[in-house]
């Protein structure tokens, strides 16, 4: 098998050369099918049992007991993706404003760009936010905000301050928006942070800003006016405590050994432990000795594999990339993702030689896997740093495998006229 090195540029060029309007339309249909599939496989426990108040925390309980929303105006909450930054931020705001903070809705803000921030003919942008009577939440990494993340942060803080001093110019009533929560706040450029710092210094307790980020080193300039809350990966003991709490609420008998194994397999990711517990319970209950533990991602990987076989395009690669990011944020072992994906791909390819080629591509991926490192000890920030490194390495490896397979399979179809197995079955 030809295994020439494929970079993202050549891959993109290959797709663009062959992708036709009809294929683009099919890609859009595929996006819709992916969204429908996601709805069919939705897990609910992680959201259902999110702590709403600081007193309800089991993981990070010590931190929740020490912090209050009233002692400082602004916060930076640092932690890995999926660690619970949003949960902590909203619990802080409920502590200060009350339960009406729960009543959120999606709104669209129209922001007029100031002259120094205009790029080309663009003079204004529209962004989607989650809002309540007292706060707004903005994810700076979402597509419509990513390019203007810094400008969005500056304008929203500035206009919130203006609104509270009866000088609003934004096309939105922010008079009651006395708190702003930024997610992916590391997207704010260091050049703009001194200006934001001045706004925060002059806020005089009129409003609160909470910056949620993965790495505090990118927001060092804002630290003098913010209280920093570091959310370390929770130890297995705390995760088991959450699983036992959910089991009690759902009237499920959960053996301690099974809870312990689920916690260990989650690699200190509470969301993944809850998802795994729910998937295992749905598949086989009452639990028995030697219970097979699911991750809750088996169906998602099967859908991804089928999508890759059906179409090799930039849209499908983009969708696969989003799913891989989600898997990594749930600390799913890279070897599980790759081995499951390979097995699902081999179900759909038509001949033994192609199956061998898939296996060969898989074997080319480096075996280093920090998630599977048995020596990975619980050391708070040290563990978090190692997990970030693992996240990047694992994501790159899985994305590389998917891109190489798509390139290989697209080439094979163009030269050998491969027909997926479901094409044959549809004629019977």
From TrEMBL:
Signal peptide coordinates: none
Protein source organism: Durio zibethinus
Protein name: Replication factor C subunit 3-like
SUPFAM superfamilies for the chain: P-loop containing nucleoside triphosphate hydrolases
Residue ranges with Basic and acidic residues bias: 19-37
GO BP terms: DNA repair; DNA-templated DNA replication
GO molecular function: DNA clamp loader activity
UniProt region (Disordered), positions on chain: 1-37
Source superkingdom: Eukaryota
GO cellular component terms, A-Z: DNA replication factor C complex; nucleus
InterPro entries, per database record: DNA_Rep/Repair_Clamp_Loader, P-loop_NTPase
